[in-house]
Each structure stands twice: as structure tokens, then as C-alpha cells.
């Protein structure tokens, strides 16, 4: 397909995204995306929310109530929007996203960021071993393409750093309350991981790109159309569990001898998580999900395999220890002071 240029578009064409609708604007990742979009000052932001939602949005965000059982309600809410960002809990019914994607096409929304956050499920190992996720992600992207109106954008970031470090031992292996850490394998497998603020900045930067090159002489890579139906890779850090542990020791002022350290074969850990899920224990899902990321096939290291767009997005270099400190504080909030 020949390259399109802004200069050749019909009168009235706007070469930037102006109106953005966000589903899950009050959630963990959604709130940071909204904050970053507001900070760049280029967009009108609409939060799509259920009538019973208690979410409070910052000044400058317009709230619209939607009814997932009414397609006309969704289409009406999306009229005039240039982009739709979907951030939902993993437990949300898949048909909700399907309804949103169909409504976006009917409303003429040109860009959709589906509910595909975190790992890069284009990795063949993840696509096979995490089929319950990858199949859902692929179905959403395929539907967007089949409807032929919108383009999808996905921003792989790896797991969320503070959340994953502060959470239960089923994530990055740390239990701060008990000062216990379990290393997967020898603990040196590096993965990409990102903070919520950095993910918000990445999404906002991407959606601030001009849509098309101005003309034949415009060689800028910061063009949104170059990412249509593609992934834009970003990351805060490429680190191992041992790197995380060293940072934890620095920010907590503890020594390794203060911690209960153990090691577990990462493949066995994944299998145990799978067995727990099969028995109905959904903590096993987090266990298998995180364990699979640390396999030595690079599944969690998209930086090495695909490279990063951090520089193109203008992302700042974050302070690793400061982010670890934030995770330690989060862990205190989650589990009580220890």
C-alpha cells in the first residue's frame, strides 16, 4: 500500500488525535494513562463508565455513562471520538470488549487500544503456554481488523513493577511482611518491567504523534500510522529478580541474611500454578503467569528480542531504587505495617 501523506488528505483533515474515550479511567493503569493524557494537553478526554460506578475523575475529564447491554448506548457514547482506550480487569467478561470494539467501528473511531496490557503475547512461547490470554487478545485484534474501520495499537510493557514487587510471592517472588523471597531458577533471568506512570507517559506520547507524515520529505518516525495494527514496545527497567533484591536491600537497609531466601525451578513453579488453577485456586493463575515470564526463552525480555521505542516516545530514565521504594511502601499498605 502506498504511503499516505497529510498534504493529500481532504479538506478538514486533522493530523492529530483530538478526542479520546477511556474505559477503566479510574482503574490502576487507566488512571495513570488519563493523568498523562491530561498533562500533555493535546486531547479531550471522555471516561466511559457504568452508571453505578463510584470513580471520581480529575478536572478536564468528561464522564459518560454506558450500558454494555445496549449497543446503541455504546455507539452514542463513542460518536465523535478519534480513539478508544480499553483498560479492564482480567476478570471482565470478554463480550464487553467485543461490544466496545463493534461500537467503535459503528461510531467511526479510527484507533483502538484493546485490553492487552503487560506481556508481549506475540512471543510464540507465551502464545502457546498462556493460550487463555493470548487467544482472547488475538480475537480482539482480529475483530478490529475484520470490521475494517479502526486500527489497533498495543503497548507491551512487561508486568507492572511496583504492583508486581509489592504483591504476593506469586508475582515477583517477594513477601515483604515475612521477609521472604523465592527466586525462579537462579534468579538472574532478566525481564522487562514498567511502572504505571511510565506506561501512562508512553501511551500519551504515542497518541500525541501526528497521524501521517506531512509530505514526501517528512522522515520523522514519530508518526502514528507507522504503528497501526502494530506494537509499540516500552519498558522502565530490564532487570532480574536478583537485581530487584539488591535494590530492596538498599532501600530497606537490610542484609541478605535478614531474609529467608529460597530457589525453585521455574518450569516446576509454572506447572504447580497450572495444577492449582485446575483445582479452582485462582492464585495459581498469577503463579503460572509470572513464572512463565521468567522462562529462559526470553518471553519476558522483549527489549532484547524486539527493541524499545522509549527514545522515540521521549520517555525519561527512572530511578530504579526510588521505584523499589514505592513498591515497599505499597507492600506496607497492602499488608499493614511490618
Outline of this structure?
InterPro entries: NAD(P)-bd_dom_sf, NmrA-like, NmrA/Isoflavone_reductase-like, PCBER-like. The chain is of the alpha/beta class.
Q: Given the helix and strand composition, which structural class is it?
A: alpha/beta
Order of helices and strands: EHEEHEHEHHEEHEEEHEEHEHHHHH
Spans of at least 5 consecutive residues with low confidence: none
- Strand segment count: 13
Main-sheet strand order equals 3-2-1-4-5-6-11
Number of helices: 13
Task: Predict the CATH topology of the largest domain.
Answer: Rossmann fold
CATH class of the largest domain: Alpha Beta
Large-scale geometry: globular
CATH architecture tag of the largest domain: 3-Layer(aba) Sandwich
Largest sheet: 7 strands, parallel
What value does the average pLDDT take? Answer: 94
N- to C-terminal distance: 60 Å
- Report the helical percentage: 40-55%
Strand content: 5-15%
Q: What radius of gyration results from the CA coordinates?
A: 21 Å
The H-level CATH homologous superfamily of the largest domain, spelled out, is: NAD(P)-binding Rossmann-like Domain
Provide the domain count.
2
